[in-house]
Design goal:
Layout lengths: L2 H4 L6 E3 L6 E3 L4 H21 L28 H7 L6 E5 L7 H11 L3 E6 L1 H12 L17 E6 L12 H4 L12 H12 L2 E6 L16 H22 L3 E11 L14 H23 L2 E7 L5 H4 L10 H12 L8 H12 L10 E4 L19
Parallel strand pairs: 3-4, 3-6, 4-5, 6-7, 7-8, 8-9
Antiparallel strand pairs: 1-2
Helix pairs in contact: 4-12, 7-8, 8-9
């Protein structure tokens, strides 16, 4: 028993001969002062002398301050935060861009504004129209970046995301006049072409969906229509990550777009599309684990609010009636916590954050960018709330 280490002098200790009890004699004032100094010194050094080691191993508890690493900030200043958000030198492939009205274009623009090189994949039937529009400068107004320059799309690849390999393409597609003169548009072929052109890339964006029976209620949806929606809108993301994963740099990311119909009933959004979006979100979480461990990739999705894009405007268009997307926008304006317009750039900016190093620890997430509409459990404009 180390009496000196405890700050006790042996002559102040008395042991009973008939028991194991130890008694302490009343110390003098000088000793009490000495004992107080020892106690204060021990308290001051406790956090250093007994700091646990951050290393995992047999010596899990260490009495040395040298082995305890301090908690550090990844970005400790505004300048470091800005650098973390800088995408210069990075290459972003956005699948599903065919005009300047959708979220895919807005995401491309936000990434370009941060310095990324933009390459896109476009559905073959509209590829020539898109390329002509680019060449004629029809998208110039929508291409302006924050410094006044124009976004440049470095290359446009034909991409049909329902086909993984060349052997998957049926004869009727190969001979279709809208595919005339095109080849190499399956996901695996596009991934190889991108690798040949750019080597490894950093950002993969899935901005595409299709449901041939989207205007039909689920009760009237055929098996073929249901599976087609799942193939084009959900499995295509899985396939993109499969084929592009090997050519993604470490700490790269993939991002997709989903919709609140994945978890809430949205009448008019049918044909199995609500199921496809639910599948997309579930796959996001699973891919976050699998691709994270295999490729070091982050996998996320953005649940965006309604936007009157060209594609969305085609859903449920009946003469003299509002389109599905017009109803959805009006409903959101009336019921979302933030009663403000939602712009494509809002989703673009959120995507920029998710694809930058600022979100380096964020994966497996469904990020809502919808003015908070997803949080609502009751429609505040419901007739049932009318007390009159």
């Amino acid at each position: 028993f180390h009496w000196i280490w405890l700050g006790l002098r042996p002559n102040l200790i008395h042991r009973h001969h008939h028991s194991d009890t130890i008694c302490f004699k009343k110390p003098n004032k000088m000793f009490r002062f000495t004992l107080l100094l020892v106690a204060l010194s021990a308290m001051a050094s406790t956090s250093v002398a007994f700091a646990p080691s951050l290393a995992v191993g047999r010596n899990g508890f260490c009495a040395s301050s040298e082995s305890a690493m301090p908690v550090r900030s990844h970005s400790g200043s505004k300048s470091e935060l800005k650098m973390a958000g800088d995408l210069k030198g990075k290459v972003a492939f956005i699948a599903g861009v065919a005009d300047s009205t959708g979220y895919g274009w807005a995401i491309a623009k936000a990434l370009a504004d941060a310095g990324a090189t933009i390459i896109v994949g476009t559905w073959p039937p509209v590829l020539k129209i898109f390329e002509r529009s680019l060449a004629k400068g029809q998208f110039d107004e929508d291409s302006t970046l924050s410094d006044g320059s124009k976004m440049t799309i470095a290359k446009v690849y034909p991409l049909d995301a329902v086909f993984d390999e060349p052997d998957d393409v049926p004869e009727d597609i190969k001979t279709n006049k809208r595919y005339a003169g095109l080849d190499g548009y399956t996901i695996s072929e596009v991934a190889k072409a991108v690798e040949a052109d750019y080597g490894k890339i950093d950002i993969l964006v899935h901005s595409l969906a299709n449901g041939p029976e989207v205007t039909k209620p689920l009760l009237e949806t055929s098996r073929k229509g249901y599976l087609a929606a799942s193939s084009a809108s959900a499995y295509s993301y899985v396939s993109l990550v499969q084929k592009f994963g090997p050519i993604m740099n470490p700490e790269s990311c993939a991002l997709s777009l989903t919709y609140i119909a994945s978890e809430k009933v949205i009448p008019g959004y049918g044909g199995g599309m609500s199921s496809a979006k639910a599948q997309l979100e579930s796959d996001t979480r699973t891919l976050a684990f699998e691709a994270g461990r295999k490729y070091g990739m982050r996998i996320n999705t953005i649940s965006a609010g309604p936007l009157k894009s060209r594609a969305a405007s085609a859903i449920g268009k009946e003469p003299g009636q509002k389109t599905f997307i017009e109803v959805a926008i009006d409903y959101s304006s009336a019921n979302a916590p933030l009663a403000q317009d939602l712009y494509s750039d809002d989703v673009g900016n959120a995507a920029y954050f998710m694809c930058s190093d600022l979100a380096r620890t964020v994966t497996g997430v469904t990020l809502y960018v919808d003015n908070g509409l997803h949080a609502m459990g009751m429609a505040v404009d419901s007739a049932a709330l009318n007390q009159e």
